[in-house]
Amino acid sequence: xxxxxxxxxxxxxxxxxxxxxxxxxxxxxxxxxxxxxxxxxxxxxxxxxxxxxxxxxxxxxxxxxxxxxxxxxxxxxxxxxxxxxxxxxxxxxxxxxxxxxxxxxxxxxxxxxxxxxxxxxxxxxxxxxxxxxxxxxxxxxxxxxxxxxxxxxxxxxxxxxxxxxxxxxxxxxxxxxxxxxxxxxxxxxxxxxxxxxxxxxxxxxxxxxxxxxxxxxxxxxxxxxxxxxxxxxxxxxxxxxxxxxxxxxxxxxxxxxxxxxxxxxxxxxxxxxxxxxxxxxxxxxxxxxxxxxxxxxxxxxxxxxxxxxxxxxxxxxxxxxxxxxxxxxxxxxxxxxxxxxxxxxxxxxxxxxxxxxxxxxxxxxxxxxxxxxxxxxxxxxxxxxxxxxxxxxxxxxxxxxxxxxxxxxxxxxxxxxxxxxxxxxxxxxxxx
Amino acid sequence: xxxxxxxxxxxxxxxxxxxxxxxxxxxxxxxxxxxxxxxxxxxxxxxxxxxxxxxxxxxxxxxxxxxxxxxxxxxxxxxxxxxxxxxxxxxxxxxxxxxxxxxxxxxxxxxxxxxxxxxxxxxxxxxxxxxxxxxxxxxxxxxxxxxxxxxxxxxxxxxxxxxxxxxxxxxxxxxxxxxxxxxxxxxxxxxxxxxxxxxxxxxxxxxxxxxxxxxxxxxxxxxxxxxxxxxxxxxxxxxxxxxxxxxxxxxxxxxxxxxxxxx
Lengths: 432, 263
Hints:
Helix content of chain A: 55-70%
Distance between the termini of chain A: 45 Å
CATH superfamily of the largest domain in chain A: MetI-like
Largest sheet of chain A: none
Number of helices of chain A: 17
CATH topology of the largest domain in chain A: MetI-like fold
Radius of gyration of chain B: 18 Å
Helix content of chain B: 25-40%
Strand content of chain B: 15-25%
Oligomer: heterodimer
CATH class of the largest domain in chain A: Mainly Alpha
Strand order of the largest sheet of chain B: 6-7-8-3-9-10
Radius of gyration of chain A: 30 Å
Structural class of chain B: alpha/beta
Order of helices and strands of chain A: HHHHHHHHHHHHHHHHH
Number of strands of chain A: 0
Shape of chain B: globular
Largest interface: A-B, 22 and 30 residues
């Protein structure tokens, strides 16, 4: 700053400098391109290579998609129409659409029932997923499983009604006795529910289902993507609460509860899901009374639920471990008892930490539902591999069918993942 | 630590010690495994007393007050709080905890709840206070600790001093008869210590029974009516603050005081 002594320091601006646009290379598309795609020699080469790769991919797939044939009755007919050009044979999706979605045995005139159940499911999930909605909607959520069961399986309405009454009375018993002793309320509720279900089940006449308003559909007639959705939704809904219970049980001070939970979690996590599914389809019958015919769908639900509950329990245990001890102490010092402290203080925070992990398990579980095709259930993949690809008309249409299956799963899983990200942002309370 | 200047005159008119016994500890011993943390503690606290517990770290002072609301279990002797004997009976423990407020070094506010919800949660769920009444009371105490305008924010948005004042308000909302403070200013920046101490002084002026583990000797001198010095798990000396600071009897106390007041 030596020359400052020569130049006068005093300065007065002699007017306002007018606003002017920035130079072209510093704005908009040009700036973005320069910074993100061509910021150096190596990056420019990579950009060009990527563009070539994308071009090659699209050059081969776009004609395949856009030349696709939507109207044909067999692969041979597709090929005739295409006459040597590249093109997909989407006709299989159009022709076999009901089979892909509902399986091949579900009565055609009853397709509206699962459709209605699906729409009602969205209504039932809304208050659970978006807690700004009025809490009264949860009442519908509570009744929904029984409605859905009745719609999809049909038969006498008395069956879901008895189940519902059993649950309501059991809930009442738990409310009344659970206040004094959790164990008394819990086991009392289970006993009462079992008694009501047994008495109610005995009272429903055998013929009640035959002339019911909704014709009964046996579980083995369920199939297609509907089966995947049913398994996915049921198992996720059941395994989150079971996972929470297992995670809390693993932390329990009572050694018996603790060890039951530890052994359950470690055993289930150590066994492949396929093995459990084979157990469900073949061996689980040995564990039930000889005359009982426990539905295959129910057996599969039990196995998948146990499997994912074990994983969710470990995810939640991580969330519980991440909470500072001070949170437990603060809850204790205010006089909250264990259920209150867990429900109001500990779990809301632990579950929030565990959201990415739980969603990870849920997405994995949903995709794993295709494994039931291995035990000859005709879910989406089972339908494709079995009745459709084995038929003389569509033998050999792999890309279109499997691509369609992937798309369906992708849409659902991507939706779940987007929801979880929204939820995490919604629950963030540290920075506003 | 620093001798904090408390500028204003402290109003002692309501700081009356009654004959009623608030806490009675008799021959209490506690071990962590085989480590003897608290040795033969005998202490009686009357309703309205303000007691400061001082001592080097590891001397058992925090453990002592954490035993008073059963955050820590004692193995021998008896603790009677507000006429209720602390035993393993969960009902008794919850009863005592709702009568005894506790303020922690790290505030331990509930980060997923707003300030107002932090203050109303326990009254609503433990005391079964109607929500509206609980909210009114919470606002009353938030005004008292001078942050009513933060009621709808989350703890993460507040400064340390503000958080600690919320923690005090949260405890007061349970209308406790006794307040325990576990190093309430140790995690705070120097300029925030004063706002928390001011809140505590106001509380003392209203005649609250207080047990404070703290290194704020200025606070001890002006507010406490008894200072307890602990070392190696036992009560080494206790006296009125004037005597305690000016005329300590035990060598250990003298050494401690010379170290913390020396500069």
